[in-house]
Amino acid sequence: MQQRWRQLSLVASALVLGLPLMVIVFALLQLLFGGDFTTLQHLWQTVIPEYIQHSLILMVGVAVGVIILGVSTAWLTTSCRFPGQKLLSWALLLPLAMPAYITAYTYTGMLDYSGPVQTLLRDTFGWSYGDYWFPQIRSIGGAIAVLSLVLFPYVYLITRATFLQQSATTLEAGRSLGLSPWQCFLRIALPLARPAIVTGTTLALMETLADYGTVQYFGVTTFTTGIFRTWYGLGDLTGALQLAGLLLAAVITLILLERWSRKQARYDQRNPRPAAPFELQGGKAWLASLVCWLPLVFGFLLPALQLAAWSVERWQVWTDSDFWQLTWNSFALALVAALLVVTLAVWLAYGRRQLPTKLVRTSVAFAGLGYAIPGLVIAVGLLVLLTSIDNVIIQITTEWFDYNPGLLLSGTLFALLFAYAVRFLSVAIQTVQAGLAEIRPSMDEAARIHGYRPLQVLRLIHLPLLRPSVLTAVILVGVDVLKELPATLVLRPFDFNTLAVRAYEMAGDERLADAGPPALMMVMVGLIPVILLSRAMLKSQQNALKEQDFVPVTA
Amino acid sequence: MLSLLQLDHLHVHLGQNAIVRNVSVQLEAGEIGCLLGPSGCGKTTLLRAIAGFQQVASGSISLAGQTVSAPAFTQAPEKRGIGMVFQDFALFPHLTVAENISFGMRHASTREKLQRVDELLSRIGLPGYQKRYPHELSGGQQQRIALARALAPRPRLLLLDEPFSSLDAELRERLAVEVRQLLKNEQITALLVTHDQQEAFAMADKAGVMYQGELLQWETPYQLYHQPRHQMVADFVGHGVLLQGTVTASGSMASPLGMLDHPSLEQVESGTPVSFLVRPDDLVPDTESRLRGTIKARGFRGAHNLYSVELDSGVEVLTLSPSHEQLEVGSEIGLRPDFDHLVVFAADRCELPSLPSQAPSFRPVLPKTQSA
Amino acid sequence: MLSLLQLDHLHVHLGQNAIVRNVSVQLEAGEIGCLLGPSGCGKTTLLRAIAGFQQVASGSISLAGQTVSAPAFTQAPEKRGIGMVFQDFALFPHLTVAENISFGMRHASTREKLQRVDELLSRIGLPGYQKRYPHELSGGQQQRIALARALAPRPRLLLLDEPFSSLDAELRERLAVEVRQLLKNEQITALLVTHDQQEAFAMADKAGVMYQGELLQWETPYQLYHQPRHQMVADFVGHGVLLQGTVTASGSMASPLGMLDHPSLEQVESGTPVSFLVRPDDLVPDTESRLRGTIKARGFRGAHNLYSVELDSGVEVLTLSPSHEQLEVGSEIGLRPDFDHLVVFAADRCELPSLPSQAPSFRPVLPKTQSA
Amino acid sequence: ATVNVYSARKEALIKPVLEQFTEKTGIEVRLLTGNGDALLARLRNEGANSPADLFLTVDAGNLHRAAEAGIFQPLTSDKVLQSVPAHLHGADNLWIGLSLRARPIFYAKERVDPSQLSGYQDLADPKWDNDVCIRSSDNIYNQSLTAALLEHWGEEKTEAWAEGLVSNLAKPPVGGDRDQIKAVAAGVCDLAVANTYYLGLMEASSDPAEREAASKVGIFWPNQDSFGTHVNVSGIGLTKYAKNTDEAQQLIAYLLSDEAQKWYAATNNEYPAVSDVEWSERLQAWGDFKMDDIEMRYLGENNAAAVKLMNRAGWR
Lengths: 555, 372, 372, 316
Ligand SMILES: Nc1ncnc2c1ncn2[C@@H]1O[C@H](COP(=O)(O)OP(=O)(O)OP(=O)(O)O)[C@@H](O)[C@H]1O
Ligand SMILES: Nc1ncnc2c1ncn2[C@@H]1O[C@H](COP(=O)(O)OP(=O)(O)OP(=O)(O)O)[C@@H](O)[C@H]1O
Ligand SMILES: [Fe+3]
Ligand SMILES: [Mg+2]
Ligand SMILES: [Mg+2]
What we know:
The complex is a heterotetramer, with one copy of chain A, two copies of chain B and one copy of chain D. Chain A is an all-alpha fold. Chain A contains 23 helices and two strands. Chain A has a two-stranded parallel ribbon. Chain D has helices at residues 15-25, 36-46, 60-68, 78-83, 140-153, 155-168, 177-186, 196-203, 208-215, 245-255, 258-267, 281-286, 296-313; strands at residues 2-7, 28-33, 54-58, 72-73, 95-102, 105-108, 132-133, 191-193, 217-220, 231-239, 271-272. One magnesium ion is lined by residues 43-44, 87, 161 of chain B. Chains B, C: Keywords: ATP-binding, Cell membrane, Ion transport, Iron, Iron transport, Membrane, Nucleotide-binding, Transport. Chains B, C: It comes from Pseudidiomarina insulisalsae.
């Protein structure tokens, strides 16, 4: 009986979070049942093949990029010791704090034909344009590079959390079967971290799919640019929603394919003894350092320096009280949203673990699809939903109480928080789920047999064991909310601005220097919690290792 | 009086497979039950169903008269008041030994907890280990902590899944006695899975053998050993070999061991082909005996050697002999049958079912088995 | 010839604690060695040091004459050609049974792998389980897969950490024989940790008992049982009770069991206080005997009952009696000493060291132990 | 009293003038900025309960869609209507223009003689093969330009023009307007299409490199002999369910006042919608030119057709 209620509440909360997606599904259904094909037909004939091609290239490229960058850095910083490893282990999150389009702007500024690099080349060698070959930064390759640099921390963070929990005995079993540490990594650690890697990559890809700013700036036409072109250019919102529906269908197929390929395999390990790290020396240590520093330098330090330069140029802003108000708005919003979203995610992910019925699993999966859909589309879906509820409320209250409360849901921060929940739930759920998969089910059972109810078990057993994953989720969602733009633009109330909106408005008018201070502030606001939380993660890792003595096998 | 634990024609499925089939068990309050059975026969699955981790496909589970599991209904595990020692220990890696043990004592004061932890730790031979983390313990030590954790809250029913498997013989025996005492003192009913028949015999009030999901017999350990109701039980418990014979006259049987006389044969019709159980201690080495064979293999067993002997008729049997009387492999030996109990089955039930998915069917054995 | 495995005064520390102390072991190629010892004495730690997962604090480990571990040097585990069955199995949860087993066969062709997997699966009694995942197996099944995985690549040295602990007696025995055969066939040297003395006796060419990090004796199983060099060994192997006595004349001793004559006492000076080992099979129930006692407890052990008897002198001893001769607790019983081997130690070594962190010190036993 | 404004024009480009209005009249202005289409969607969904009194947006296309969506009510004040030329009114006076942005051709002063140029049709002339830079057709500026040409030239000619333009491109249509101007300066192409205010921003930039680039390009005002240089509009309308109609009308009137027009146009180097307001110095320096006085609603009506046409022509 109680189980049924629990199931019902899970499904209900998942469905509520998935409601804005319903609007898209509805548009698609409309199409199926004798809808208007003219827009889609035109698009099919002219641009969609290209959208698909570009989107695919972009996704494959970004997937390869984030996996290489994320997994290598995660493995090096967890299982090896080398100079700078501690600093790097949290600093590698930083690229995430950088909005992708800002990074895109900085690199374009530097590497474009009119930028300092090419100008210098021309001036030094007396070349003019066309005399020399230089990679075109505004290209699909450039977009892949920039998105990989900015998004690899997803893979890094989530994979790192599982590497930290990986059992020593499993790796030792590999070595007793004749595998070198490197082979152990490839054949055991990597496949075992697969849910995490896939999760991180899926998030990066969903973000890529939903990205508008970067690809648009780089002139790469993708499905998402197509959606907006259809909406803005053709003035056809339904057509745009239909395209979004196709996107959604593609994402669902992808996810299903991956789930299916995992089959029955499980990833929890029996012995929780964490693995001993390798002490790297000499050339290997330098190489490891280099491998970790490169993505940090290109993904964060260079763009941040550029931002800093702009900020110095526009120093007046720092004395503006408006600007500090923006900062506070952004920070508070990100914090509240992150806590809210992660709480929801834990509730859903844990519920799914406890009651893995088809119904619950499907509805939770559905609630987590929002990340792949461009934020603006979600915002519009939500708008339709919330305003119609609001209108009903207003109608009722005016009729019965002769009182007009105004737009309670759509006109307040509620709408924003709701939108963030829909959009970023996936980030949190997937991160938490990757962590949960590492906890043996017998832990749950051992706790319940002692008379604890599921929620108590969650508090006593799972949350402590999940700490790295939950903190990771908080960081990811927080930083994402800080950067979030389209939904914030559409749904925020009057006179409420955030750093992201300010940076975007400036950058959108190609006033890059003015975009510098808010972008830098965004990075800094994101930075502080990132450092604090990753400290906490590091500490929980060390706790587990405290009494443990290592075999510092020199690799 | 109501039984504390009652399983009623229980069936449990994992995926498509029927893992537990038609199991009925009764345990009175305070009794200790013991499940034996080959690896993979469904013991753990049965315990998990009792604990409430596994839905039942048909039949029911009752605790103190109240149905807790039925096909459409599974009471939540935390409401059952059951303790469990998991086969893989399932210690909480983030909690110390003391925190692990006191985990289930939800309503106890800190002092009570401390006291109980101290008491249990010294009972299991690990005093002073309060502050350790599970990964700082050896396998056997972890297992003992798991045991202590299950005992600490004094559950009304305790399920133990091979709780002593990682312990050395001496400790295991001592602990079995301690635990039995503790269970009896604190009036805890227990169901124990073990692979150690000695342990089962030593601890259990009731015992049973599971085979491919079915519980073949559920009686006292003595009955299990001396009056097995089923060939599988006879075969599984105590190293038996089944031989063929034919009853020739009332109380007499022609067999590879020669003519055997036994009161339990009196009820069997003359001419019936039967199979009967021969345990190593049923055959005594005797240089004078006419029954002779060749030693095929010798195994040192501490106090005894276990010899595998091929009789002249080609039949292989086992026998024990004190280990300082070294008999060489290949040498001849005389054997004297010395049956205290003769366990006889209908001969056509002699083949063991070999397909894992095929359940053994229960045909009643022809003569009612008896003990002398 | 060089030994395949040689441990030379090995010390291993975990954190501050010296877990393995001064262990020296030698195993010739193709031999099977067996480690016994109470839970937590350092057996697993020793195996892990041999495998290369644990640094040694002093002493050395050599494989076929080549030093692989020394205080400043640890050869990487994968370079040692050692296989290991882990106490907690450590199966790869993301791989199927077949993939797990063939994991270490890196240079084999797909066909070879398939064949080896099939062969090993049928040997361990799990044919057709290729496609399962570890979590779809019972505990005992998982353990057998871990065994097969370690056997598959035919390592030159195999370390087995309680590889049969989750199996039922019958399977365990069968498997022990199979594995022994396989090891001998494939010329694999093996070091086995087990808690089952029967198993140790059945499998091992050499055996030893570890106690609090020290290896007390390393000889043949027969010597371990009948000629223990240390009280701890005597105590640990085969259910012994140590009693006090005084040698009165050449070959004779006054003891709680009365005057005992035994050739092994001839070398001991008259008047020496000694302690000697009494195993259950050394005392035969005999209604006529003058040595009498009261039954304090009875344990059913299948073929036998194990009785704990308090002699009139207050000393408690154990004895065995066939299980159908039911003697009641509280009743009187007569016992006849029947020592085939008499194991005698200096009397002052009678206290067992009780602090876990305190090592037993080895004073040579006074009379050289002997067997009759 | 307050008035609530939804604005697609960015905060920095409108907030100061609104603050001046508040100072003058004491009427509080609450502002919500955002993307034009998204704000429109919000307005539509909020319906009668929308708090917005005014909707301010850039581009004729957006204004047209807003008018079509029926969220505006006609403006009635004669003073307001008369201060702005008729072609900058929405149909039925549903909205009114506030400023104009011109989209001429830029050329490399070093390499191009402006006398070779005549108008937008040159961009498709094979003579300029591999010499033209223009941004993506995703951009509303290009969509409006094409929509205007569609009205002037008809579908066939415009499509041929778009195809010719695409084949003349010196580089893929990427980057913003400023990038096209810079590309001309860097020698990537000889001609570029961009809005003038970007040149203004570059001329006023603190970065010497930008100022230098700006100095290398000249403005050519196309089609002075025919329909004139393409201009687009930013405009404002009174929402249908406005609750603060008076205040809103006061604000519109203020935005069309001399003082506001000057500032409003000058901050972004746009041209004032009210004809007799004096241009800023920079605009005067660029010179006078003939603006296309096509009725703005055509830009909106033709927008979808223009996008489809560009899709077909392969203009990405
Ligand atoms: N990380 C550690 N720090 C300190 N002591 C440890 C640590 N790990 C294990 N020990 C101790 O080392 C001793 C030996 O452990 P080991 O695992 O070798 O025992 P074992 O002989 O294999 O026991 P079992 O038969 O129970 O498996 C144990 O007493 C254990 O408590
Ligand atoms: N998820 C599953 N799907 C299908 N079969 C399963 C699954 N899990 C376990 N089994 C099978 O169920 C049977 C019973 O398993 P169970 O764990 O109850 O055995 P057990 O009697 O406890 O054995 P052991 O003594 O080895 O622990 C085994 O044969 C096992 O292979
Ligand atoms: Fe612009
Ligand atoms: Mg089991
Ligand atoms: Mg061990």
